[in-house]
Design goal:
20 strands; FAD/NAD(P)-binding domain; 9-stranded mixed sheet; alpha+beta; D-Amino Acid Oxidase, Chain A, domain 2; single chain
Length: 404
């Protein structure tokens, strides 16, 4: 196959990769290609999330998550309006179901206001039902900025902008090897070699492996966590008007099972968060010896396991026991029963783990010679994708010396 020559190669056709490519190619005089291993865009994390436009409520003020979420949310809504993509700012209710969750709720309100959210309203127990008639708790927070959208459509629109600006999108092209050559590198893909001067790695579940192929120690291991969903049967959609969330455990970088109305119709319940035995393991029985070996031979894994094993067992119990899953949901909506749910989809989160056993909560971006590697981009990465893409493009321009 003939060699493709470009200035910039972006590895990864998810929403962060396409947002980054869009920011680079529309603001710099460079040739660019997005290299995606699947036959379609947004095949993994982007295409298997619940479509929530996050407000910025949860994130530590000043963190990359907080800064990019609040700016990126507004940019995303503008992009959707300009491109005719349905998006709705419907708001959500965070429900405290026990008295000991009230300090956590107060901290959420403090963070949200510090991150620039306006209109957050504290709800007494009897006021929760004014917004979500079937939810119950000791107190609640109404957050008006939260919304819903279809992130696959958003990603495809980003790709259209990349092509319109002269960039290329190469599908079905897994990267098998990266070789340094002169003042650049050659990506050996299933579609033939791609010679580039600069590399941006947005490969999500495989971002640490792409970094190593490029000769960079990522300093982290990507550990896959599967989130499993149920769908409410149509006759019970009325139990959830918009979004209902619990107060999250501050020690764990997941939000807990919740209810989400989808932009295309229907209501999802979930997800849990169980360790997956394959990086693209969307079922309980998915297994990859290579992926498992990569996880268990990383020293930080056992330190993490020692810290979170009780919580992990609880998540697995909910995975295999529908009644346990329903029990968690009934804390938010007491009328829910096992008959109200049918199996839904699943997603796998690319969670970066450091050698100390710490699950990284913030975005992690590593720079190297002629390379930028995005090694942790969890939620709210989709919400913040335009802002993150512009930030990565800015790092790339500075690192690569590309002029706007």
């Amino acid at each position: 196959m003939p060699e493709l020559r470009v200035d910039v190669a972006v590895v990864g056709g998810g929403i962060v990769g396409l947002a980054t490519a869009m920011a680079v190619v529309t603001r710099s005089r460079v040739s660019l290609v997005v290299v995606e291993k699947e036959e379609r865009l947004a095949a993994h994390q982007t295409g298997n999330n619940s479509g929530v436009i996050h407000s910025g409520l949860y994130y530590k003020p000043g963190s990359l998550k907080a800064r990019n979420c609040t700016v990126g949310r507004d940019a995303l809504l503008r992009f959707c309006e300009e491109h005719g993509i349905p998006a709705e700012r419907c708001g959500k209710v965070v429900v405290a179901t026990r008295e000991d969750e009230l300090p956590g709720m107060e901290e959420l309100q403090r963070r949200g206001e510090a991150n620039g959210l306006t209109g957050i309203r504290r709800l007494a127990a009897e006021e929760i039902c004014e917004i979500e008639p079937h939810a119950a708790g000791v107190a609640g927070l109404f957050v008006p900025q939260t919304g819903i959208v279809d992130y696959v459509r958003v990603t495809e629109a980003y790709a259209d902008e990349v092509r319109r600006a002269g960039g290329q999108v190469m599908l079905s092209a897994p990267v098998r090897r990266i070789v340094r050559d002169g003042d650049g590198m050659v990506l050996e893909t299933a579609k033939g070699p791609v010679r580039c001067r600069f590399l941006i790695n947005c490969a999500g579940l495989h971002s640490d492996r792409i970094a190593r192929l490029a000769g960079v120690d990522p300093g982290v291991c990507i550990v896959p966590f599967r989130g499993e969903y149920y769908d409410l049967i149509p006759e019970r959609h009325h139990l959830v008007r918009n979004l209902i969330y619990p107060v999250p455990d501050p020690e764990f970088p997941f939000l807990g099972v919740h209810f989400t109305r989808m932009i295309g119709g229907g209501v999802e319940a979930g997800p849990n968060a169980v360790l997956a035995f394959k990086r693209e393991g969307y079922t309980r029985w998915s297994f990859s010896p290579h992926d498992v070996l990569t996880t268990v031979t990383f020293g930080g894994f056992w330190r993490m396991a020692g810290s979170y094993w009780r919580m992990g067992l609880g998540e697995y119990w909910r995975s295999f026991n529908r009644r346990a899953f329903v029990k968690a949901l009934r804390r938010l909506v007491p009328e829910i029963s096992t008959d109200d749910l049918k199996p839904g989809g699943a997603g796998v989160r690319a969670q970066a783990l450091d050698p100390r056993g710490k699950l990284l909560d913030d975005f992690r971006i590593v720079e190297a010679e002629r390379q930028v590697h995005v090694l942790n981009a969890p939620s709210p990465a989709a919400t913040a994708s335009i802002s993150i893409g512009e930030a990565i493009a800015g790092i790339a321009r500075k690192t690569f010396g590309i002029d706007e």
